[in-house]
Amino acid sequence: MFQRHYLALFGQKINGPDQAAPLADWKGPEEFATLRRLLKTRMGKKGKRECMQVLRLMETFRIEDVTAAVGDAIARGAIGFDAIKHLVLCRIERRPPRLNMTAYPYLPKVTVATTSARAYMDLLVGAVS
């Protein structure tokens, strides 16, 4: 069984969670493993710290709320401590999240082009053939 009081100790060392015996047997929700992998890949050492901050949210909030927020953040592509904390608070307060994506410069940018009527007509012609 995972004990929350270990979280503060793990935060003191960057590799604390990797080397901690109390976490060795903890089979946490899959969302945390995905988050950790994404943060580590995108941000390196800073990603490990960020992941530790997310885990420390469980010192204050229920694991179910943190897990749901992590899953929501992954689905939204807003992977980071600030976004996850915001999503936890929105979940608890039952209000819609408002994420400012400019706060996450390391996330890939998405551009959506305006579809032209010509492209639509090309699709229709292709469907008839």
In short:
This protein has 129 residues and is mainly alpha-helical. It has 8 helices and no strands.
Describe the structure.
This protein has 129 residues and is mainly α. It has one domain. 60% of the residues lie in helices and 0% in strands. The protein is built from 8 helices and no strands. The protein is elongated and about 60 Å long. The model has no long low-confidence stretch (mean pLDDT 79).
Computed CA radius of gyration, to the nearest angstrom: 20 Å
Euclidean distance between termini CA atoms = 62 Å
H/I helix tally: 8
Shape: elongated
Number of domains: 1
**Count of β-strands:** 0
In the predicted model, the low-confidence regions spanning at least 5 consecutive residues are none
Proportion of beta-strand residues = under 5%
Portion of residues in helices? 55-70%
Main beta-sheet annotation: none
The pLDDT mean sits at: 79
Order of helices and strands: HHHHHHHH
Give the class from helix and strand content and strand pairing: mainly alpha
Could you outline the blueprint of secondary structure elements for this entry?
Elements: H1 6-10, H2 16-19, H3 21-24, H4 30-43, H5 45-56, H6 63-76, H7 81-93, H8 117-128
Helix pairs in contact: 4-5, 4-6, 6-7
